[in-house]
Amino acid sequence: MAEKLQIRSESSELLRDQLLCLQRNLSVVETGAGPLDFRHFDWAWPLTTVPLAAVIYEQGREVTNCTNTYLQTIGFPNGFDSVQDLRKNRTYIPLVRIPTSSAEIIEQLNSHFSNLVFSYIDFAGNFRNAWSYTVGEMLDNISQHSQSSSGWLLAQYWPTREFLDLVILDRGLGFRKVYEKAYQERYTDREALKAALKGRSVKKDKERGYGIRTTKNLITGAELSGKFLMISGNSAYYADSDRELWLDLGGWQWKGAIIVCRVKRATKPVDIYRYVEG
User: Fold this and answer.
1) What is the arrangement of strands in the sheet containing 5-8, beginning at the earlier edge strand?
2) pLDDT per residue over 125-152, tens digit each?
3) Which residues, including other chains, have CB under 8 Å from residue 243's CB and lie 6 or more apart?
4) How far is CA 55 from CA 51, 190, 233, 269, in A?
5) Residue 269, preceding peptide bond in cis (omega within 30° of 0)
6) Of 92, 215, 235, 117, which is closest to residue 227 (Cα–Cα)?
7) Last residue of a domain, which of 52, 78, 104?
8) Strands 5-8, 36-40: parallel, antiparallel or unpaired by DSSP?
9) Cα-Cα-Cα-Cα dihedral of 117, 118, 123, 128, to 10°?
10) Which of 131, 146, 157, 261 would bridge with 166, disulfide CB 3.0–4.6 Å?
11) Domain final position from 78, 97, 120
């Protein structure tokens, strides 16, 4: 009988600590063949949970002792994959497996996420559609460019901490291979992330692709003072209102792309207009 592999949680709200926890747990999953024991997974952040679920689902791994009621509520590890499962909830959107062929699911996800955000953030003016565009752009990137059969999403608002975490990811080509395929040029993972952040479109007939850059600028702008993290291959980029960092992931890699947005509860109206380009 194969030995159970221990999966452990991280209580810290710091994205850096959560990323380290994710790397440790995925190393356990990827190097061991036994059942995954979740008895010590007491605290579930979107960053520590969604990528783990995607890999477990992809590999068809056995999960044991998953008694955390929150994990059960959000549908871990298989997630939900139908519009009917997207029940309105005040503080979260459950773990959703997004079929890239389903425009209906993508549209519903965008609508539910926008409703959740607008429950806590007072956006100035009539710019709800602009915010929906930025989230929709990230979902569209999965369906149009990743060549993955599905993407994953989880959003959670923490009332006592007054911020909302969103994770959207896929297990597809990743930014480097997408750019290499589009332009027939060699990229490193970091170069590909830089191209995305500069707004370089992967569509040759479109000069700029503003979705990721607009989202990063909005999240980290002065009004929201949020945090933005993007991971693909062996490179990661972090930004907040004060700094930008390129993170060394060592020998660890993510197949596809992960985007993390942390939005604080706004204390004043947010004028989204000045962040939207194109």
Assistant:
1) 5-8, 36-40, 63-64
2) 444 554 566 667 677 666 666 566 678 9
3) none
4) 6, 23, 15, 39
5) no
6) 215
7) 78
8) parallel
9) 90
10) 261
11) 78
Same domain for 88 and 180? yes
Q: Which residues contact 252 (CB under 8 A, 6 or more apart)?
A: 23, 26, 27, 234
pTM of the full structure: 0.89
Amino acid at site 234: N
Q: What is the CA radius of gyration of the chain?
A: 18
What CATH number did the domain enclosing 96 receive? 3.30.565.10
Other CB atoms closer than 10 Å to residue 207's CB: what's the count? 10
pLDDT in tens, 147-197: 666 789 888 888 888 888 989 999 988 889 988 888 889 999 999 999 989
Contact residues for 146 (Cβ-Cβ < 8 A; gap 6+): 100, 170, 172, 173, 174, 178, 256, 257
- 53 lies in the same domain as 98: no
